[in-house]
Amino acid sequence: MMSSGIGAPSVHHAMVVIFLEFFAWGLLTMPVISVLNQTFPEHTFLMNGLVMGIKGILSFLSAPLIGALSDIWGRKFFLLITVFFTCAPIPLMTINTWWFFAMISISGIFAVTFSVVFAYVADVTTVEERSKAYGLVSATFAASLVISPALGAVLMERYSDTLVVALATAIAVLDVFFILVAVPESLPDKVRPSSWGAPINWEQADPFAALRKVGTDHTVLMQCVTVLLSYLPEAGQYSCIFVYLKLKMGFNTMEVAIFIAVVGILSISVQVTLGCFMRKIGAKRTIILGLILEMTQLCWYGFGSKKWMMWAAGILAALGSITYPAISAFVSIHSTADSQGAVQGMVTGMRGLCNGLGPAMFGVVFYLFNVDLNNEQSVANSDVEADDKWFNFPGPPFVFGGFMVVLAILVALFIPEVHGDVNLHRTPSEKKRASVDLQYEVEGGHKPTTPLMRSDSLAQL
To answer: Which InterPro entries would you find in this protein's record (predicted)?
Structure first.
């Protein structure tokens, strides 16, 4: 067991690990788009979707197992493994681009750093402190991606892709070195086995265990269906929006970087106010409002052909970021304290599945509608040409996703309102725990990300 480190285990250790990993990948946002188009000029969007789809599915399958193993063998080892393999493809970008994208796909098996980081944070905080701690980690992640794409774009334009890749590689190596030298083990010795041959809970490691329980409760089933219909297109959008803006909408590298920064900062501000929304209009209405905003921005992305339309859609995407946190909060409010983990696991499992299927779905729809980049005239600053095509809008997957969200809205409308007597049958300790759970859901959103900048969106590009 690796138990060395600097000082006592703390949230700050986790924050540094997250910042360095995603700062390294954020630097590569613009270079990766160019390399993707050069490597797959005839099927750019299809290959982008398949690469990220494979990575997402592998992450969904491996995350519970890695989490279960870290509960036994310790967090530090798995922090090292997940960071190393998530960043392993970076130097291949200037060596062999085919191997680069192949490694990105395969790295999905270990690209679950956030799962281990949140377990690390849970080890070193009390229940009362956890909401603030998760918020700090989420803010650190967001800050790294607000800064790094713009820096990477500047370095790429002034110098070369090679310099950006070298810098990203150096930061990734620094992250691995930091874990080896500075990060202490957070899992107490008394709960860790004395040997590496200790058995694990295979039921806990089963990625489909939570999904099999979805149909056992009508209300939870409707919530999970809402998550499936809304987050599937959202995950697909995350996977290709930067590529789409640059290669199809005519954004230059700096404009994409500014877009990421502005929308990211706005989305953070919106999620901070989620508690106010829920107190004013209720959790269910907040969910429906978020879905309406998501549906509108997806359609705007799909039908829009001007840059200002993309900016408007981006702003709506930031405003619509309240949907998933509101669903998590709704579950937290209307579940008993002893079922919180199980129910949240179902919702999170459904979302994890979407992370794999959404990108692949978008890539295939782009391919079926013959949206590719065989020549420079595919940039849509001018009117969209439709001479030999049977459609006349540039983003078919976004429009298809918008229709899926319409279905999600219809399902959400029929989610039963549970009256405010849920807490009446709870003990004082259960009420306190539920209150803390809700505070975490509302403040941290139960997702360590911001719109257009998910933890795996940039890393999977």
So the answer is: MFS, MFS_dom, MFS_trans_sf, Sugar_transporter_CS, Tet-R_TetA/multi-R_MdtG-like
Over 70: is that where the pLDDT of 442 sits? no
Q: How would you label 40-70 residue by residue, b for 16+ Cβ within 10 Å and e otherwise?
A: beebbbbbbbbbbbbbbbbbbbbbbbbbbbb
DSSP 8-state symbol, 40: S
pLDDT at 398: 94
The average pLDDT across 329-347 equals: 64
User: What's the pLDDT score for residue 114?
Assistant: 81
- The whole-model pTM stands at 0.77
CA 392 – CA 401 distance, rounded (Å)? 17
> Does pLDDT of 403 surpass 90?
yes
Structural fold of domain 11-188+207-372+393-414: Growth Hormone; Chain: A; (1.20.1250)
114-136 pLDDT tens trace: 888 888 888 888 877 776 777 67
452: nearest Cα among 158, 149, 163, 159: 149
CA distances (Å), 173 to each of 12, 114, 277, 407, in order? 19, 18, 42, 45
Q: Residue 115: which of 242, 14, 214 has the closest Cα?
A: 14
Handedness of CA 392, 407, 447, 267 (dihedral sign): positive
Q: What contacts 419, CB < 8 A, 6 or more positions away?
A: none
Q: Identify whether the C-beta of residue 423 lies closer than 8 Å to the C-beta of residue 431.
A: yes
Beta bridge partners of 450: 453
If you search the block for the tokens 């049977």, which residue do you land on? 390
Each domain of the chain, given as residue ranges in start order, spans 11-188+207-372+393-414
Closest among 186, 198, 239, 204 to 366, alpha carbons compared? 239
